[in-house]
Amino acid sequence: MSEQSGPLVQKHSENGITTLTLNQPERRNSLSMAMLEALSAELEAIAADSETRVVVLAAKGSVFCAGHDLREVRDQFDSHEFQLELFNQCSKVMQQIVNLPRPVIARVAGVATAAGCQLVASCDLAVAADTARFATPGVNIGLFCSTPMVALSRNVSRKHAMEMLLTGELISAPKAERLGLVNKVVDDQVLDETVYKLASTIADKSAHTLKIGKEAFYRQLEMPLADAYEYTSKVMAENMMADDAQEGICAFLDKRKPEWKDS
Fold first, then answer.
1. Is residue 261 part of a domain?
2. Where is this region: Disordered (predicted)?
3. In a shared domain, residues 132 and 199
4. Which of 146, 178, 213, 231 is the most exposed place for a label (fewest CB within 10 A)?
């Protein structure tokens, strides 16, 4: 097995797009405690970075992410404290992605299983190569994918989520697209082109507006219908007072390109 080369999570920023790349292909980019802590630190930094407008989450090698590091888990079989800390840390990272005031796009090439599938489901958008595959196979080793279930069940229908969770079987990228786990499936040769075209389209919008919209989207999902409308009405009224909303409306009426202030 080759030695680790470079940081566990590589970071590259260009044109308002920050790419975070899981960089432990020799360990199938598994979510060890160290990987989770590295990813958490990068997400925390991005949350405070006004230059980043969109985040792309990628991975090196033929596996996007195989879930938790089972060797690490096995070494800590006797420590309930470690196991709880590991799953809490993983849950923290998934919530950081959802709560990040920047859209996050998963770039999926290869296999995404267990917590790796959870990682894809936690991102706001996902683009997959046609060779990618997905599964929540914990049931096969006696460890039900309970935390991956949270993100999965919020992206696909209950019966499809239960089928994945109960069988543990791999599904193809086209099926994942049909179920709503990913937005788009493309040939591997145009994966980067597709991902970064999507990222650039989003990065061209007002960062302030995107932040408002992403937060409101996830909050209203958990509300009863009447509460959701009451909440989003308040959000839109507040949004209308923002510089970028007023600039955008004036630019549309004047038939010109808006000049965002991100405020």
1. no
2. 1-24
3. yes
4. 146
Take residue 64 and report the two structure tokens written for it.
């996007």
- Cβ–Cβ < 8 Å for 20, 39: yes
For residue 5, the model assigns a pLDDT of 74
In a domain, 163, yes or no: yes
- Please tell me the pTM assigned to this model: 0.95
Q: What is the pLDDT of residues 121-142, one digit of tens each?
A: 999 999 999 999 999 999 999 9
Q: Would residue 112 count as lying in a domain?
A: yes
Could you give the strand order of the β-sheet that contains 63-65, starting from the edge strand earlier in sequence? 63-65, 111-113, 133-135, 171-172
CB 131, CB 154: distance < 8 Å? no
Quote the pLDDT of residue 4: 58
Q: Structurally, how many domains does the chain consist of?
A: 2
| Residues 141, 232 within the same domain | no
> Is the Cα dihedral 34, 39, 45, 48 positive or negative?
negative
Record the tokens describing residue 234, joined without a space: 């308040």
Q: Where are the beta strands (DSSP E) in 60-136?
A: 63-65, 104-108, 111-113, 125-129, 133-135
